[in-house]
Specification:
Blueprint: E1 5-12, H1 28-42, E2 46-52, E3 62-70, E4 75-81, E5 88-93, E6 96-101, E7 106-112, H2 120-133, E8 138-144, H3 152-156, E9 170-171, E10 185-186, E11 189-193, E12 197-204, E13 209-211, E14 214-216, E15 224-230
Parallel strand pairs: 1-2, 7-8
Antiparallel strand pairs: 1-15, 2-4, 3-4, 5-6, 6-7, 8-11, 9-10, 12-15, 13-14
Length: 231
C-alpha cells in the first residue's frame, strides 16, 4: 500500500533577522543552527519556509525540492526528507512552490499570500488558482497565508477547508520581535485542504530560545507542525 500520511512544519523565518529581544551579538549562523535543531527535533517529512533571505538553512536529513520562488517578502523553499525526493514532482505556480507526492496522489503548496486586511479577494482568488494548478484532486495549501479568520467561509466556497490552529501563530504580546509595534494575535500561518484530506496533530511551537539571560524567538511568526493524511 502506498504511504498516504505525512508530517509537516511550516515557518515564516522573517528573513532571519534578529529579534529586538535577542542578545546583541546574536548572529545569522546561530539562527540557522537553531532552525536546524528544531527541524531535527520534530523530524517532519516536509518543511515549508517563507521569508528566507536568499539562503536555505541546512538540515542534513532533508533536501530542497528543485523549485523555489520569491514572494512579496523574501524567498520561499520546501524541504523534503531525502528518502521522499524520488517520489516528488515539484514546480512553481501562482506564486506557490508546488510538490506532488506521486505515489500518494497529494499536492502540497507552500505559500506566502498577500498581506493586509484589504487583500481578502486576492487571497481567496490565489488559493483557488493554486488549487486549480495542482495535478491531483487532493491538495494541501500551507504557509503564511495572511488570512483572517473571517475569510474561512469565502475560502470554503472555492473548495478548501481548514481548522484554526490551536494557538495563534502570531502573538506580538508575548513575542516582542519588534519593540514598539502594535500588540495583537493572529493566525497568519494556516493550512487549507480539499475534503479528501485530513489534517491532525497540529501544534504551534511557540517556545522561545533561552540564551544566557535572554529569552527570544527566531521569527515574528511561530512555526506550525502537523500531519496530513489522505482519507
Amino acid at each position: 500500500m502506498p504511504r498516504t500520511s505525512f508530517t509537516f512544519l511550516s515557518w515564516n523565518l522573517c528573513l532571519l533577522q534578529r529579534s529586538d529581544e535577542a542578545p546583541p551579538f546574536w548572529r545569522t549562523d546561530q539562527a540557522e543552527a537553531a532552525v536546524r535543531e528544531l527541524v531535527l527535533k520534530h523530524a517532519p517529512d516536509f518543511v515549508f519556509f517563507q521569508e528566507l533571505p536568499g539562503l536555505v538553512p541546512f538540515v542534513e536529513t532533508h533536501d530542497m525540492v528543485p523549485a523555489n520562488c520569491k514572494s512579496h517578502s523574501g524567498d520561499m523553499a520546501t524541504l523534503a526528507k531525502k528518502e521522499l525526493m524520488q517520489d516528488l514532482k515539484s514546480w512553481t505556480a501562482k506564486g506557490a512552490v508546488m510538490s506532488e507526492i506521486r505515489s500518494a496522489g497529494i499536492t502540497l503548496a507552500n505559500v506566502h499570500l498577500r498581506p493586509g486586511g484589504e487583500g481578502t479577494w486576492h487571497r481567496v482568488a490565489n488559493i483557488n488558482d493554486i488549487k486549480q494548478a495542482a495535478n491531483t484532486d487532493a491538495v494541501l495549501i500551507i504557509g503564511d497565508t495572511n488570512t483572517r479568520l473571517t475569510e474561512s467561509e469565502k475560502i470554503a466556497q472555492v473548495g478548501m477547508v481548514g481548522d484554526k490552529p490551536p494557538k495563534p501563530t502570531w502573538d506580538s504580546r508575548t513575542n516582542r520581535f519588534r519593540s514598539g509595534g502594535r500588540e495583537f494575535t493572529a493566525y497568519y500561518t494556516r493550512y487549507f485542504h480539499t475534503e479528501n484530506l485530513n489534517v491532525s496533530r497540529v501544534q504551534v511551537l511557540d517556545q522561545p530560545i533561552v540564551d544566557d539571560k535572554y529569552s527570544f524567538h527566531l521569527s515574528d511568526h511561530f512555526p506550525m507542525f502537523g500531519r496530513v493524511e489522505k482519507t
